[in-house]
Amino acid sequence: MRTDPFPGERPPMSGRITRGFLGKRRGQQGDRLPPGQYDVGNGWPTLTAEATPRVSTDQFELSIDGLVERPSTWSWDELQALPPSTYAGDIHCVTTWSKFDMTWRGVSLDVLLEQAAPRPEAAYVLVHSSSGYTTNLPLADLRDGKAWVAWEADGKPLTREHGGPARLLVPHLYFWKSAKWVSRLELLDHDQQGFWERNGYHDRGDPWAEQRYQGD
Questions:
Q1: Digit-coded pLDDT (tens) for 153-164
Q2: 44-76: b or e for each residue (b if 16 or more CB lie within 10 Å)?
Q3: Which residues pair with 211 in a beta bridge?
Q4: Is residue 129 part of a domain?
Q5: What is the pLDDT of residue 30?
Q6: DSSP helix/strand/coil, 195
């Protein structure tokens, strides 16, 4: 079974939430595995729950708006012209797999936010994908070197199935927060739930605290 739900992640069983997680820890990676996770090894599971969008680099646009001083939009070429940044580390899916030692390339959210200049009252972000998917995050989880707009993974351009041409990367949270096909970041003064959060998933999604579902 493929388990990297569209467009971020999907509950293990459609239509209901289950806490019956499968998998086991392998090797000596226990200190790097959050609770309830297993090492997926060389794999990178994917699952498409609806049509995967085709977004060419010619069509690509990324906007930051809402509670900012300077609403900003970048084309693909403009995004590529910004100072690049690399994340090297692990990712964790709420469906219990973790993938170690990935290398991602893109642009730090700090660079984009600096240009847009969040207003003092901005505290949350509703992330939008070109597919219509949304997910919510505290603004603090996207600042200070914690998040990227990424277009390359392990030395290769992101495929459509993994969110290409560009996706959000927030590796310290469960991977449904790393929205595929990212197109807009809307800054708000209040928390507004996204797709999976409205369907029972946790509003923040910290793997080390096992924040899988509302109430965790």
A1: 999 999 999 999
A2: bebeeeeebbebeeeebebbbebbbeeebebeb
A3: none
A4: yes
A5: 56
A6: helix
What's the domain range around 143? Answer: 56-209
DSSP assignment string, 132-184:
S-EEEEEGGGGSSSS-EEEEEETTEEPPGGGTTT-EEE-TTS-GGGS-TTEEE
Q: Is residue 165 part of a domain?
A: yes
What SS3 class is residue 73?
Answer: strand
DSSP letter (8 states) at residue 54: -
Longest dimension (CA), the chain: 49
Give me the count of residues in the chain: 216
Asked whether residue 194 is domain-assigned, the answer is yes
Provide the CATH number for the domain around residue 103.
3.90.420.10
Residue type, 23: G
Which tokens in the block code for residue 106?
Answer: 């893109």
Q: What are phi and psi of 7, to 5 degrees?
A: -95, -5
Q: What angle is formed at CA 42 by the lines to CA 41 and CA 45, rounded to 5 degrees?
A: 90
Joined together, the tokens standing for residue 173 give: 């949270």
Who has greater pLDDT, 26 or 164? 164
Q: Is 205:94 a contact under the CB 8 Å cutoff? A: yes
- How far is 11 from 65, CA to CA, in rounded Å? 30
Name the CA radius of gyration of the chain, rounded.
Answer: 16
**Count of structural domains, the chain:** 1
∠ CA 26-43-20, nearest 5°, is: 60
3 falls within a domain: no
What pLDDT score was predicted for residue 49? 52
Looking at residue 16, its pLDDT comes to 33
Q: How far apart are alpha carbons 93 and 106 in whole angstroms?
A: 20
